[in-house]
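Before relying on records like the one below, remember that each one covers exactly one chain. Contacts with other chains, cofactors or solvent are not represented anywhere in the record.
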Amino acid sequence: MISESISTGTAWLLNVRYNHNIWAFTAPPDPEQTEFTVEDYTRTYLRDTFASTLTLQELQIDVLEYAPTIDWIEYALPQTTEFISQKILILNKAGREVSEPLLLLLSNRKTNGGFAGAKKYPSNNRDTAFALQSLRAVDYPDQDIIDSAISFLSSTQNPDGGFGASPSTVYETSLTYLSLVGQTTDATVLGNAINYLSSTQLPDGSWEDDPYSTALALRALASVKPNLSISSTDITFSNPTPAVGDTITITATIKNTGPAPADNVLVQFFDGDPLAGGVPIGETTITSIPSFGTSQAGINYTIPTASSHTIFVKIDPLNIIESLYSKNIANKKEYLDTMNLRGSFGDAVNITYMQVTMFTKFIPT
């Protein structure tokens, strides 16, 4: 159902561009007209162009379809939080500089954790959602700013599952969902938002017969994916003091903070860096990791020598699972306190740290 909605919605969205670089018209323009001014465009041309470009990036549509649009956006000078945030998202995905619009965005943050459309206005749901998306995309380091924005947004959901000033709207629900997914593990908040969007699509594939609402709803539906992760504290040993030749069990707890389950998750264990001659210990497949849940993978390991060992764990090494907000090859190194393991002749067998390596498929945001 969701895949069909995405297919029909994308076709509609591309069809209403009318062979121009931006989404600026409600109907095909006069083919004899070769030059256009702002007066020729719809009042929502900036909004529709930013949202549509983000959607094409998210759905991995051929960049040749919209490369001139990205050039146009780079030189545009938006002044509101909505468009500043979207400019950051688009340019960041395209590998272009975002420092100046990021500073402008942060100037619109309020003391309650939300963001306003501009400095002189109060914070609101829509602008906070836009700001949170762009801060996450650039890996903004101040987690307090991120957490306060999440709390502000989560408190504003309506009884019908949507977001926005009552009644709920498709675009505010989509925006808020996209901001919260991968940030909160509240299945009720995220699930109700998706149910609201699924129930409001029109028979022609659009939402509200509107490019902006359709683009945002498509992005939200396309984000119903798992989000797999692991840290060093998620790895444990069955016996902290084995001798050389003893067999212990290494257990890795894999977390899924995404709104969809992950099935057939391959987990591999190595003694040493697999990219530098590390020795495979073994592998196992987790049948399913539920949304917002965890599952464990375990493997037996016989202590080979009285020496230091580095344990590597790979999640989905073949890049089969489409996962949220993941880098193609993400090395996450987190070190535990030294584990002193005594050998049979009193020699120390040390696992001095565990280095966790996560490989998951890149899905643009």
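The radius of gyration is 24 Å.
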